[in-house]
């Protein structure tokens, strides 16, 4: 009889092992300690646990139903909704932010009063109680909830919830009034979007912006004058109304020559020494701006007359006037620093095989290899299109590659072919750690959006001449100058290649409110501002990106960082500070656009692209850095760029105490703005 009563008692069900249950059902004797353990699990203790969970619900989720209804009501539930592995599948805990229109309930959510947290927890099959707690607190953004949970648990434990021998049920503490903002400080930013444009110096875009560290002037006249050896004079800055420019060569050696030991006087000389100005592709040479016969335009500047939207963003949000390229070099090293804080050359897939390489100017293919290709009527350019070669051509290519050492083969395929084929992707050797490795470890979502088109620069191909190089296709699936992530070995090892996407995926995510935590956006040549791209075209492209974010559900929790990857050969008057042997490089324009950004603020801190990584790490990774001593991949990078004392903090550009600002929608094709004056 006692056995039957014990079996019928649901409160003791979870305390009876399978072996004990079998003996009870058979009417056999059961050891006293087993029966005592079952009886000690009293309904009163069970009620206390339910009360505790309901207290947590009041503390954590005052306005949002976090958990789905029981499985009996909702059917089979997709538990990825309760995981932080996909950042965007977690519903927002900010009561002031709506992920979906109010008339559209979340999937598996009933329109009536949501179930209590204790009910929901009981219906999470095969998850331990501690796993259920971790679902709530793992994101690192529920500090207030944690304090409430700890207090409630402490009250329960100290109250003596010990079964029949201890005191009676403990009354749950009265929950405090819910905080108006669950997310605090930097964590109000749930989406970081980095829009990378190309090849403009700060002075060429904002050299006459009021209050900024612009082109030196006195009494309304510029005082800077840069030597022009070709014309035996010096050239002063001037307003350039042209929307199509030529710029100048912008490799590492050009950066050294332009800075000239801090004199900042080599810009015109560099432009005159390059036959194509800053225009690398042969197709660009039809532009008059790229012709060496005319005067160089590197001393020209633009203002609101040519780029009114960029100036409008500066007036309405934050302009950073000391953002330096992270490396004194060109686009490829700049993009490597953007995603990894380093630029290196590696001889194998081991991180330890990498060595600093700020230039990324690799030697031409060995002469014997090129001679072998010529005998078979092949060129190095065709390495980008291996899939299009006939079988006999692929066999001949294999025989030529077999003559190279492993290092030579890696350089030929991994660098010279970086702009094209799957072969180049497979053998690219970016073996050091990039930021996506840390994001993946912490289940933080990311995407690198690539606009389909062509890249603007040559990539040290042996077939390039002074007449320029052939256009190289750019897409999400192939590594290139502006899309280096497919070449990183950790991206491949983590099987994260699918997070490098076409730009159409960005527009879909922004409109649907499903932006990942971290996004990078890179353009095609036509929209990039890279000479000779039309500035009005690039400005319209950027404005459309920002407008799309502002229209979407994620605007109120987004920080947009808009910048340009290198100086493009254009004049800037500020000598770059030295961070380490790689840089910094010259100043570039940079803007912060966010509902929490300060209004009309000019940030004078010393910054580089490393500050973007630092902000992301502080927001999503609890301050973890790209540090080989702590990240689990011991690459030999010379320093931890995000931790350098010289680097400022982007959090200074925000006022997280202010209510989220409304979107500022700008026209894609605005009218020219007012003229500026020397000295701002």
- What percent of residues adopt helix (DSSP H or I)? 25-40%
Q: Which band does the percent of strand residues land in?
A: 5-15%
Uncertain regions: pLDDT < 50 for 5+ in a row? 10-15, 37-43, 60-181, 416-427, 459-468
Number of distinct beta strands = 20
Can you give a write-up of this model?
- The chain has 680 residues and is of the alpha/beta class.
- Helices cover 30% and strands 10% of the residues.
- Strand 2 and strand 3 (221-222) form a beta hairpin.
- It is globular, with a radius of gyration of 30 Å.
- The protein starts with a helix and ends in a 60-residue tail after the last helix.
Which structural traits does this protein have?
680 residues; single chain; 8-stranded mixed beta sheet; two-stranded antiparallel sheet; alpha/beta
